[in-house]
Amino acid sequence: MQTLTTRATRATRVGRVMQLTLEGVAGATLFAMMLLTTADVTGRYFFNTPILGTVELTQLMLAALVFLSLPVVCWRQEHVSVDLLDAIFPARLVWVREVIVNLLVTAALWVMAQRAWLLAQRAFEWGDVTEFLRIPRGYLIALIAAMLALSALLTLGRAVLYLLEGLKVIKQGGPLSPSTERGGDND
For a 10 Å CB count at each end of the chain, is N or C smaller? Predict the structure, then answer.
């Protein structure tokens, strides 16, 4: 029991570092998008010289921003959800529902990650680049595949935590504990 608690604490620390890293990179990407757009608008309207390729760069950064944020959203379970099943599931069986939902989401994310990885490989093989700036698209698609795979692993981890806590293998620190509710201190 002690070993499981120690592993859970270590996993929490690693998860926190990963979360802060992904949030930091996503935040920097958003800041770069803001600076680029501001510079482009300023150049376009005041100096009649827009920045060439702004639309392409913004599209690439937006895609990176969305997929860099996905693992954090999956781990925190902050994605859009519909509570249609809440009324029919008794509170003592919520963990069963959460295990099933998280396993289904894991499978969907894993399939998408595999498809995206194949698309990245094909983009590299074909030399696929953006239209104006000639930036290779394979790197962005590989990032998308990696973030989908990481999101799948984190969602699987959520399912395992729900299962362990539902079976009373762990008492605290799992997703059902008050200390790790959405928006809690340990998220």
Answer: N
The long-range contacts involving 26-34, CB below 8 angstroms and separated by at least 24 positions, are 26/64, 26/65, 26/68, 26/69, 26/72, 29/61, 29/64, 29/65, 29/68, 30/61, 30/65, 32/61, 33/58, 33/61, 33/62, 33/65
List pLDDT tens digits, range 123-159: 999 999 999 999 999 999 999 999 999 999 999 998 9
**pLDDT at residue 176 above 70?**
no
178 phi, psi to nearest 5 deg: -60, -30
Single-letter code of the amino acid located at 72? V
Residue entry with tokens 């693992």: 71
CA 139/CA 121 separation, integer angstroms: 9
CA separation for the pair 108, 152 (Å, rounded) = 8
